[in-house]
Design goal:
It is a single chain. The protein is of the alpha/beta class. The chain folds into 2 domains: 167 residues, Glycogen Phosphorylase B (Rossmann fold); 165 residues, Rossmann fold (3-Layer(aba) Sandwich). Helices cover 43% and strands 17% of the residues. It is built from 14 helices and 14 strands. An 8-stranded mixed β-sheet has the order 3-4-2-1-5-6-7-8, sandwiched between helices. The longest helix is centred in the C-terminal third of the chain and has 18 residues.
């Protein structure tokens, strides 16, 4: 039985971002396929701690919970623990963690690096941090046995720049079998009377852009925002202070609540200026079936001809598209089946897990 360690994320159960969701969905399936899997978790991220989760072993280690040190401090501690145990394969997430790969190679011969999208371009990072993250790509490519990208456009860019073939494995999406509609009553929502955004409250997600344009269209429907920012409460507070009628901040919600709010929305919407493969968009496609997102190449690739886009950063185009689809729900309904077929064909977690297992 091969032993696998997964490092570099907040841990599981997932309660923050796409990386954690990917780890949870794949690690559980690795365990079901006979692998001995351990996920390293950040202890300050979990109030309740368990020895295992759905067949996956959990190890909790501390971290310095600041924007710049949370990940790196936890990864350093993880390396010391990994050094004491013999793992056959180590999967390490994030280009910021790629600097640790040469050290990990001292204890494990098989390292898989999962790189983010263009993380070094995100506004939340200082100029110095952007340089560190950008340079981290070289470590991932040079020292990992294999490096994985979640986006075909990014895969082409890595191959062109570094002359080493990446492995393309996208994020996946889950389609629940049932939904609890009564959750809407608890949250003060009505089915098909709102649109929903999901994501971290960071500038490149275009949340302020989305709110300001929603305010300018003539509609009685609501804009529901799911998400927040644990490390930049100031920016989160700024977004919540924006005066906007019919804009609701639900914070981070998960599980049945998350699924119900997404399912019974009229559509999923995003204001993103920068993305890799967006896990939230995939969830929007899988659960809701219709998305209106910016026309950045990464979004267009994920949609694969379904749903709708507007010109990135274009106020007029977003307002016109929002108004049109809010008033023409029959077009939204007609698209849902096609969208879900795209998800089933390309983004099932079973298919994605099998790609990892083939790599193992």
């Amino acid at each position: 039985m091969k032993k696998i360690a997964i490092l570099g994320t907040r841990g599981i159960p997932a309660s923050y971002s796409g990386f954690e969701t990917s780890v949870e969905e794949t690690a559980i399936r690795f365990a079901k396929n006979g692998f001995d899997v351990t996920v390293f978790c950040r202890s300050n991220h979990y109030d309740e701690k368990h020895d295992s989760y759905k067949g996956v072993k959990l190890k909790y280690l501390s971290s310095i919970k600041t924007k710049h040190l949370d990940t790196v401090s936890n990864s350093i501690l993880s390396i010391f623990v990994v050094a004491k145990e013999q793992y056959d394969i180590i999967i390490i997430y994030g280009i910021g963690n790629a600097y640790f790969i040469p050290f990990l190679k001292m204890f494990c011969k098989n390292i898989i690096s999962v790189v983010d999208g263009a993380d070094w371009e995100r506004d939340k990072w200082s100029k110095f941090a952007k340089i560190i993250l950008s340079t981290g790509r070289k470590f991932a490519v040079k020292f990992a046995n294999n490096y994985i990208v979640d986006n075909e456009l990014l895969a082409s860019e890595y191959k062109r720049r570094f002359k080493k073939e990446p492995i393309f494995i996208p994020y996946g999406a889950t389609v629940p079998q049932e939904y609890d509609k009564s959750i809407l009553d608890k949250l003060g929502l009505e089915s098909n009377k709102y649109i929903v955004f999901i994501g971290r409250y960071v500038k490149e997600k275009g949340i302020e852009f989305l709110i300001e344009n929603f305010k300018k269209i003539n509609t009685s429907k609501k804009l529901v925002l799911i998400g927040g920012n644990d490390t930049d409460k100031k920016y989160e507070a700024h977004l919540k202070k924006l005066k906007a009628k019919n804009v609701i901040h639900l914070g981070f919600i998960y599980g049945k609540e998350y699924e119900a709010v997404l399912k019974f929305a009229q559509l999923y919407v995003s204001g993103s200026f920068l993305e890799g493969t967006s896990p939230s968009l995939l969830s929007g496609m899988a659960i809701n079936g219709f998305a209106l997102v910016s026309d950045i190449p990464e979004n267009i690739e994920v949609l694969k001809g379904t749903c709708a886009t507007y010109k990135v950063g274009n106020n007029k185009d977003l307002q016109e598209k929002l108004s049109f689809f809010l008033e023409n729900n029959e077009l939204v309904e007609s698209e849902r089946g096609k969208t879900r077929r795209i998800v089933e064909e390309n983004y099932s977690w079973e298919k994605i897990t099998n790609q990892y297992i083939e790599l193992f």
